[in-house]
Every structure is written in C-alpha cells, then in structure tokens.
Design a protein that fits this description.
This protein is α/β, with parallel strands linked by helices. The chain folds into 2 domains: about 325 residues, TIM Barrel, CATH 3.20.20; about 35 residues, no CATH class. It is about 40% helix and about 10% strand. It contains 15 helices and 11 strands. It has a 6-stranded parallel sheet with strand order 4-5-6-7-8-9. The protein has a 3-stranded parallel sheet with strand order 1-2-3. α7 packs parallel to α8. The radius of gyration is 20 Å and the shape is globular. The protein binds zinc ion. The site of zinc ion has 7 residues, from β1. Zinc ion binds next to β1.
Length: about 375
C-alpha cells in the first residue's frame, strides 16, 4: 500500500472503502450471512445539489472557450466545509428517510457535458468535479463513496481519460467511474464501445480493478430528451453493442454497470436472446459475467420484471437520487425514485436475494469492504 493510499484511508475514517486486488469474486465482504447487519448500498447517486458557484464556474469556463477573458478563477471553487456539508443535507435526509446507508456518489451526469467545450475544458471540469465529490466523501465517509467522471471529448481517444481515472482511484479513493458511451451528446459519432478505440481506457479499468457505469450525459440532439430518452437509449444501445462484439474475450475481468434498469433490455429480454441466437452469438448469460444492471426503474411492475428476468447476482440496488425524477407519484403518494420502498413490498424476494441486491452485489462489483 502506498503512503498516499494509507493516508487516504486514514483520512476517510472507520467507514472507509478499501479496494482489493484480484479477479472477479475475490472481494471479501465483512459479513454477509443471514441475520448479519445489512448495509444498504445505493450504487447510483449524483451530486446534483452542488453549491451554486460550481455551475457558475462551468458556465464561465465554457464561455471562455470563445472569450478567454471570461475564464473563471479557480478560487470560485474554494467552498468551505460548511458549504459542502449544507449542499448534501438533502441526500443525507433521503438516506435516513428511506433506510439506505451508503451512496456511490458521482458528478451530475447531465453536467458532464462532454460535447461542450473541448478536451482541455473537459479535463479541467472533470478534475474539479471529482475533487468536489472527494470532499463530500471525506466529510461523510460513512455515507458517500466516490465515483468520478472522465474527461471525454468527441473524437478524442479515450486514452486521454487514463490519467484522470488513475488519479481518481489512486489519489481520491474512488471505486469506479462513469463512461459516457456517446461524448457527442446524442449524435453517436465515436465508435461503439466494443471497438479498440476504447481499449486504453479498459486496460486501465482492468489494471485498477474498478467497474464503470455506462452513463450518458445531456443530449445536444433535440430528438432525444436527456433523461427521458438519451440515457435509456444509451443503455440499450451499449448492451446490444456488447451482444454483437467480443469485448469481454479481450477483457475478461472488466465490469460494466448498465443503469436505469438496463434501459429497454430486461423488458425485451428474449428479443436479445433471440437476436444473439440468430446471429450465432454466445447466449446472454455469457455477458452476465461482466455486465450488471441497477434498479433505477421508477415503476413497480418494471422493477418486478427486472428482478424476475435478470439473475439476482447481476442486479445492484440504486435509486439515482437526487436526480432524474424528483416528484411525488399521486397514485402512490410516494416519490417516484423511492425504489427501495417498492422493492421492500416484494414479499416473494427471499432474504438471501435481498442481501445480494442491497449489499453483497455492490460489495463484489465495486470491491467494497464496508
Ligand atoms: Zn444517473
């Protein structure tokens, strides 16, 4: 263990995460037997409640691409600890109210905005946002675990993301990253994720033994609403890329989390089974050695379908708070994104499966020791 890592863990305190080296399935949960305390891990939360100056900094940064005189001073981001604490009280309240314990916390997905600015602005923005996530995780080590954004840029090799990925894992203690499969923001100009174009990034993910969530950013294409279409399209599109490609032959330990319940995939499960069969591709179960879905489905029958379609070992609990849908469903009187409440009503879900869903799968996929 490096000095940096030791210091980091010391700084993070008792609830700290620890990454383990080794192949799939080697992570050792602290306790997972029936009757042991359950730690409910939400693997998909975004820091959508950043201090106001964070968004102002980004606006100025983008304006400065055309007019360098508008470049914002870095001092704009010198938030006090109290400001950072105040900004996440909403997330902490949701954890308490809903009975979740830890959130794997990443920058605002829609604000990654890889299609905006250029490679240099993407690097600066990613570093600043990842640093802010790190501050939240240091202040609340038992509530938040960091996942970072990458400095992607359309047409630029993902090789340019390797340094920031390494920094966020080795120096900030992050347990993974979000990869935008379409940095052009809805125009899909870069190669599919099975293309060698992406390989430098995968090589680093494998070396660091951290997973990636496949998460689009905002849409620049007026045909695709961001959270309503583009995100879900991207999840579906990437899964089909994986069906038709041989990515995991080259990277047998690479792990992808496809969020938002896997887009359209579980709902059309046998369409994809049949397509794979017709194309003489391996059965979908082969992909499930490397691919996981989360439970960000805001419809009880949809969640039920997901849980009864995809093997439980491949599903990670998540709610994506505070995020895409923030209102209260007048039909139930509960928030749309309170996925735990819906899952808790599934009497048919065994205690063993519940433990996998809420805790053990996240520990395994993200190599957590919490
Ligand atoms: Zn998200």
């Amino acid at each position: 263990m490096s000095t940096t890592r030791r210091d980091l863990l010391k700084g993070l305190g008792a609830g700290a995460l620890v990454l383990s080296a080794g192949g799939p399935g080697l992570a050792q949960p602290a306790a997972s037997g029936a009757g042991a305390k359950l730690t409910v891990i939400d693997v998909h939360g975004h820091y959508t409640t950043v201090p106001k100056a964070m968004r102002e900094f980004r606006n100025l940064q983008l304006a400065a691409v055309k007019d360098p005189s508008k470049a914002p001073p870095k001092a704009m981001l010198n938030f006090s600890d109290d400001e950072v604490r105040a900004s996440v009280q909403g997330q902490l309240k949701l954890q308490r109210d809903r009975g979740t314990n830890v959130t794997i916390f990443s920058p605002i997905a829609g604000a990654m905005g890889h299609h905006l600015g250029n490679e240099a602005t993407s690097i600066e923005w990613s570093q600043n946002f990842n640093d802010l996530i790190h501050r939240v995780c240091k202040l609340y080590p038992e509530n938040f675990i960091g996942v970072g954004q990458l400095p992607q840029s359309p047409g630029v090799s993902p090789k340019n993301c390797v340094a920031e990925l390494e920094r966020m894992v080795k120096q900030l203690g992050f347990v993974g990253c979000n990869i935008n499969p379409d940095p052009s923001g809805g125009y899909w100009r870069d190669p599919p994720m099975t293309n060698r174009w992406w390989y430098p990034l995968y090589e680093k993910l494998v070396e660091l033994d951290v997973p990636a969530m496949i998460h689009a950013s905002s849409s620049a294409n007026p045909n695709f609403h961001g959270t309503g279409a583009h995100y879900l399209n991207a999840n579906t599109a990437v899964f089909m890329q994986l069906v038709t490609g041989d990515l995991f032959k080259d990277f047998p330990t690479l792990r992808f989390v496809i969020p938002h319940g896997g887009g359209a995939i579980p709902y059309h499960w046998s369409r994809y089974r049949g397509l794979a069969q017709d194309m003489k591709r391996p059965p979908l179960t082969e992909l499930l050695k490397n691919v996981y879905f989360d439970t960000c489905v805001y419809y009880r029958p949809g969640l039920e379908l997901l849980l009864k379609t995809v093997p439980i070992d491949n599903i990670l609990f998540a709610s994506e708070v505070i995020g895409a849908v923030r209102g209260v469903d007048p039909e139930t009187g509960h928030h749309y994104d309170d996925t735990k409440r819906m899952i808790d009503t599934f009497a048919w879900l065994s205690e063993a499966d519940r433990r996998k869903l809420f805790q053990d799968n996240a520990r395994r996929v993200y190599r957590l020791k919490i």
